[in-house]
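At this stage, I wrote out one protein, both as residues and as discrete backbone shape codes, and that material follows here.
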Amino acid sequence: MERGAHNRLVSVAMGMLLGAAAMAVHASIAVAATPIRIGATLPLTGPFADTGQWVARGYQKWARDVNARGGLLGRPVELTILDDASVADRAISLLERLITVDRVDLILGGYPGTAAAAQMAVAERYRKVYVSMGGHMASFQRGFRYSFGAPPLMGEWWYEGVWEWLATLPAAQRPQKAAMITINNPVGAAVRSSAIEGLRRVGILLVMDERYDVPLATAEPLVSRAIALGADLFIANGFFPDGVQTIRAMKALNYNPKLVLQGIGSIIPEWVQELGADGNYVVSGTPLHDRLPFAGIAELAEAARQEFGVGTTPQYYLFGYAWAQALEKGVQGAGTLDQDAVAAYLRSHIIETIAGRFTFDARGLPPPYRYTTQVIEGRVELIWPPEVATHAPVYPKPSWGK
């Protein structure tokens, strides 16, 4: 073969090789840029939408922040949130659809605890890491390998700080009789069980223990009975809508106990929007607050104020962000989307999120929390424990209109 022809052949061959290499590089870049698809279901409508929508906003904020930092494992994240309409069965079927039909890479947790407990079993069946509020203690005692509460909204821990605080008061200053009403579902049952034990610890007599179904037609008969029994501590283990009804019934009947505990609902902005000054002085628990001394939480609170114009950062916005952030830590730490590797990393390493720095035990739980809140002048303040308190407890509860 002539030298010129040979050189032309070599040149063509080299060009083809370089072209193939370039195509391989471009293909690699395309694969790397393929979004990581993340799916979740939340109650965007229905009775739990007031809180579910804030969880969704927390997830969405996390996704925007991750993408602004260059993505997860170098890939953008693409978030899909389906509306389960506050129906647990629908939360199950939609999560299964996300996993088996849409084939998402990762999943995020649902709300409330009834949906989360059901979805934990789905996640276990499909071997998907599931970070959420959990379905209270019972759901973490089923031996699941892939579920984590980061932090959990644990009914059994919800009033822990309240009992600690009351124990510091002289016995004569504590409430003497408690009336308790509880929503008839697993969430209420979890809070109720811990309340019974807590009352026993601080020596307060439980004189009324009523359950109710939702929707609650009226709270006035329940409140009237508490008045008749002379209860100076009222415990409402329910959600936002029935909690609002209960407070309105208390005011209408001029019932003003020393202390009012509200299970779920008083830590979202809608509480003050609905009740105004009547929503003040209600005490509740929380695993998270915008003025806890944890990295990133102050910046997130400021972002919420700017985006939504709220005076108090919605706690469920923080929860959503924290649950997504914990999943992110697991994926980053494992360096892969392999679910077994992510679960193993979370179970064996300290992680740090806006909810603090913690490890998970064999159940997928961090250490118990005891943060206690009180609505004071329209703001959700931390009143316990003392080392993180933003305001002293207002006790006993002032009269209506004060």
About this structure: Confidence is low (pLDDT under 50) at residues 1-31. Residues 155 and 241 are 18 Å apart (CA to CA). The two ends are 104 Å apart (CA to CA). The first helix runs from residue 3 to 33.
